[in-house]
Records
---
Amino acid sequence: MPAPAIRRYRPEDRDAVFDICTRTAEAGGDARGVYRDQELLPNIFAAPYTALEPDLAFVLDDGAGAVGYVLGTSDTARFVRDFRARWLPAVADRHPLPAGEPGTPDEVMAALLHRPERLLVPELASYPAHLHIDLLPAYQGRGHGRALLSTLLAALAQAGAPRVHLGMVTANTAARAFYDRMGFHEIPVPDPGVLTYLGRPTLQ
């Protein structure tokens, strides 16, 4: 088998990216037993980026297909507008807005889908880009995450974004250690809920 290599996302990577997203979504662990609709999380956290920002979507390919990815946007405010205008209409029928207070994990996430403006956090305004990165467990701890992230940081810098942020589940301590090693620092945000926000320059 050839060594895993980074390349741009292709439409035929869709199913693999959806699978990776779901298998790493529960504080870094497998969320397949948590959500009934296995396309819900990818349609929030992965597919909009491949559709709206394909030039900033990269996968790690082990020769048989994608086993990890990094996705992002160079301009969160623009991404939110495009999500509202172009992405949400394409998936809203599959994932309708819950009536009343969300009661199940699927309803909680569907409510997030319908509220892309949640990404517009004032304290993050000077970090206009944001990203998502996920790797299957067998490929973690081997330098692939660093390589993927470095690839996206270079692409974001080329796109004109000076700084990037991400929101991570605070309980995911392994991810936090990785981001610390990659030069991210915590960005104070009032009442962040279950998330911690981190940021860094795109070039360093």
---
Amino acid sequence: MIAFVRGQVAALTLSSAVIEVGGVGLELMCTPGTLATLRPGHLATLPTSMVVREDSLTLFGFVDDDEKSTFELVQTASGVGPKLAQAMVAVLSPDDLRRAIASDDVKTLTRVPGVGQKGAQRIILELKDRIGSPTSGRSSSPASAVPQWRDQVEQGLVGLGWSTKDAEAAVESVAPEAGDTPDIGALLRSALRSLSKA
């Protein structure tokens, strides 16, 4: 298994990063939050998890080991595959996930696209004894999430080659869509649409 990848960022897309390792470009599926930390041409080290299927080998890249281990753990719940697990770590931080599962917070879990009421209850039931307790005492409240989403979307756009000025304007244009629980991926796509119209 490939535990981590270190190399130059060769390319970024909306959902993945290509990291050049020894002359080979490895495509890593990443969350918008992880992609926002990467810059083309810069060196990066990403913990990775490899998902092996009959017809594919997929590498998922993460911002840190905590996100990676949370991604791998939530897949042990029935009905949670790699795509849903990635959506979970994209919408909720590892600590927010641990907090939601420990406190039977179905509402927080259903913020993840693809997780319904029954799915959230099953995840809580199956993972409650294994997920552990939050490592930091505070949750990322909506107040701190607002500037965070702006920063992530702006960095994502700059990483994809737009100027800081254009990125800031695009972030302003999508701000009304953010609401209380911003979906970084949706906002990034929306910002890209507004830039392509301009």
---
Amino acid sequence: MTLKNQYSTFTLECGTDEAGRGCLAGPVTAAAVILPTSFKNTLLNDSKQLSEKKRTKLKPIIEDTSVSFAVQHIYESEIDTINILNASIKAMHGAISELKSTPEYIIVDGNKFKPFKNIPHTTIIKGDSKYLSIAAASVLAKTYRDSYMEKIHEEFPMYNWKQNKGYPTKEHRAAIKKYGITKYHRKSFRLLPEQYQLDI
């Protein structure tokens, strides 16, 4: 399926998406991207459909050709304080506010968003596989977050974050069981299934 350039009739339409919502460790990261209306790229798709190699190849292309882009991390302690959904939206708002050009319209991946300033917006389920700007935002959010996780992996290699990027893999959960949690773990998340079992 070919991804569409625009949802609205506005020239400065920004797509936004986040990565890392379901992770046990690390930030939730959002990106906002305004692409030129003439933008074309056959490789670009939802970042989950792309290999790491393709995402890495697309990152500089998106950055060089976009009208403007920005990325924002919201870290564990804030996720624990305001919850993951609010943190995801806050990260998107933060990325949008850092764009060099103020968007005239915002399209958001998913179905949850809070109005940003007075800019009209539309939430689009699976938007990252329908619109180029959301797909571009998903690629930037994922690549920036992945490189952050690879960096903190050096500090705590036993969790293998360079591989699992903080997602709840069997190996990650086993490491939490063995070593406990780090400052990068989200304390409000169900880190181990046993947290739901009562000691009777």
